[in-house]
Write a structure and sequence with these properties.
Number of strands: 6
Number of domains: 1
Shape: globular
Number of helices: 2
Helix content: 10-25%
Length: about 80
Amino acid sequence: MSKKIKIKVHEIATDGMPRMDEMTGRVAFIFDGCMVSGWPIEGGDPLWEANSDVGSGQKFLGVTHWIEFPVPVWKLTR
């Protein structure tokens, strides 16, 4: 069964980084044309760390946009 949801695409230069204390499970970043679950790392240029299932512990630099889901992604399939 399909379900429609609304997501928001944020530009870091305009909207800033997500407030992860309020958005756990609701954030993904766009890197090299892919949407990847993860979170920002504080300090310097916007660095992102991907979920361990996809990121292999590496840091991502050069992210310019992030995605906001309306609910934590694990609730989308319930």
